[in-house]
Design a protein that fits this description.
The chain has helices at 16-29, 67-80, 122-131, 143-147, and strands at residues 3-11, 33-38, 40-44, 54-63, 95-101, 106-107, 112-113, 136-137, 141-142, 155-160. It is an alpha+beta fold. It has a single domain (3-160), classed as 2-Layer Sandwich (Alpha-Beta Plaits), CATH 3.30.70. A hairpin with a 4-residue loop joins strand 6 and strand 7 (112-113). The chain is built from four helices and ten strands, in the order E-H-E-E-E-H-E-E-E-H-E-E-H-E.
């Protein structure tokens, strides 16, 4: 079953922009999915984390991959960028969060969908709403309805995220991904 996924990318160690660009390239080259939309690159202060500012983006992806396979893909992408997990919310070379999988609601020991804290984070909501202004969070409603609660979180739009070949983030994209 084909499903629209929203993935959150973030990094605050090393070549953070390069990590996001390489990850976008890997996802574009993956034979089992299609990148539909890419948000701008955003800089944000850490939330419930430590270290320098993060660079963030949100991607819309269509795939028939199962949730467990998507989790394995996300963890593989993180490993390729040297992600280590010394403690919860440690600074990271790459974080790939599975935010939404269409209207799927899932709560297992390994994976919770939608992401349980996405509605509390400007670094997720701002780029998500950029590519899908009508985004819905299952059980919570419209993502836009939650954005005002994050108004005190520092976030800054930097410009387009391109892959390592310098390709445009989404040729011809002009609005909602729906």
């Amino acid at each position: 079953m084909q499903r629209r996924w929203m993935l959150g990318l973030g990094a605050n160690l090393g070549d953070a922009r390069g990590a996001l660009e390489r990850t976008l390239t890997r996802l574009r080259q993956h034979s089992d999915l299609q990148v539909i939309a890419v948000s701008s690159l955003w800089r944000s202060a850490p939330v419930d984390a430590e270290g320098p500012d993060f660079l963030n983006a949100v991607l819309a992806i269509d795939t028939a991959l199962a949730p467990q396979a998507m989790l394995m893909l996300a963890q593989s992408l993180e490993s390729e960028e040297g992600r280590v997990r010394p403690h919860r919310n440690a600074p990271r070379t790459l974080d790939v969060d599975l935010l939404l999988a269409g209207s799927l609601v899932l709560d297992t020991p390994l994976l919770t969908l939608p992401h349980p804290r996405m509605h509390q984070r400007a670094f997720v909501l701002a780029p998500l709403l950029e590519i899908d202004p009508l985004a819905q969070i299952p059980r919570l409603g419209g993502a836009a309805d939650w954005a005002s609660a994050c108004a005190g979180q520092r976030i800054e739009k930097l410009g387009p995220l391109t892959d390592i070949a310098g390709e445009a983030p989404w040729a011809g994209h002009s609005g909602s991904v729906q």
